[in-house]
What we know:
With 330 residues, the protein is of the alpha+beta class. Helices cover 41% and strands 26% of the residues. The protein has 3 domains: 114 residues, no CATH class; 41 residues; 125 residues, no CATH class. It is globular. Its main location: cytoplasm. It is found in: Cytoplasm, Nucleoid. GO terms for molecular function: double-stranded DNA binding.
Amino acid sequence: xxxxxxxxxxxxxxxxxxxxxxxxxxxxxxxxxxxxxxxxxxxxxxxxxxxxxxxxxxxxxxxxxxxxxxxxxxxxxxxxxxxxxxxxxxxxxxxxxxxxxxxxxxxxxxxxxxxxxxxxxxxxxxxxxxxxxxxxxxxxxxxxxxxxxxxxxxxxxxxxxxxxxxxxxxxxxxxxxxxxxxxxxxxxxxxxxxxxxxxxxxxxxxxxxxxxxxxxxxxxxxxxxxxxxxxxxxxxxxxxxxxxxxxxxxxxxxxxxxxxxxxxxxxxxxxxxxxxxxxxxxxxxxxxxxxxxxxxxxxxxxxxxxxxxxxxxxxxxxxxxxxxxxxxxx
Length: 330
C-alpha cells in the first residue's frame, strides 16, 4: 500500500463528502469483471482487498480509495497475422487487393472472435483524498493513469474541482539553481540521479544515475546551458524520490525506520496494520510535500480547474445570449 509514485492535484473547492457518503456514491460504479466482449472495465474496489468490503477507508481524516482496471490482452502481432491470412484468402479467391477499410473490418471481426478467449489483465490504482490539505494524491507513474482515475471519480461523485498541484517557481529553473550552487534546499539532500535537458533542443538529454551530483562534470553541463528536469532528493533522511518538472514524485522509497514505525503499532489484524501504514504514510507525505512546495516558492493558486473553466465559459455564453436578446428587443 505504500505509494511508490505521487501525482498530486489541488482541490479548488472544499471537499465535503464524508467516508459514508463517498462510499455510497462509489458503489454505483463498483468494479465488474470484463464480459465476453468487453475489451476493458474500470471500477472501484475495497482498498483493503479481501480484508474489507467498504470502498472508502478513512484514517485521521484521509480517505483512501482504490480503482481496478481490467483489460483483455490480445497481442497486436497475433491480430495482424490473422488479418493478413484472411486478406490473402480474399485476394486469391476474388483476384483483387483488399483495401484499408476492408482490412479494418477484418480486424474488427478478428477481435470480436478472439476477445472471449483472451486473458484478462488487472491492475490496482490507489489514491487518497486529503480534505485538510486540499489535495487528491494518486499513486500513478503517468499522468494518463492519474487522469483516468480522476475522470472516473468525478463521474461517480458528479463534481470534483481539481488542478495539478503547481508551484510559484518553475521547477526546472529552481532545481537547476540548486544544483548549480550546489546547495540543496532546507530539509533536503541531493540524491544520486538527475536528468538534464537543453532548453533549445528537446531531444538533447543527459541522464545520470549513481553519480555525485555535485561533481564537476555535472556543473559543466549546467554552465553550458542545460537545465535540470528530474532530480533525485532525500527528505529529512527518511524518504528518497525523484522529482520532475511537473512536480510529480517517482520511485519513492521510505526508509526502514519509517516502515518499522508503522510495524511497531503491534497490529492485531490486517485492517489494523493497514491503518498504521496509512497513518504513517499520509503524515509523512503531507509534511514532505509542504516542505517541497516551500522550496519551490509556495503553491500557485492561480490555475483554474476544468469545472471552473467550464463554468466560466457557460457564464460567458449566457451573457452573450442575454446581450443578443437585448439587442433584438431594442
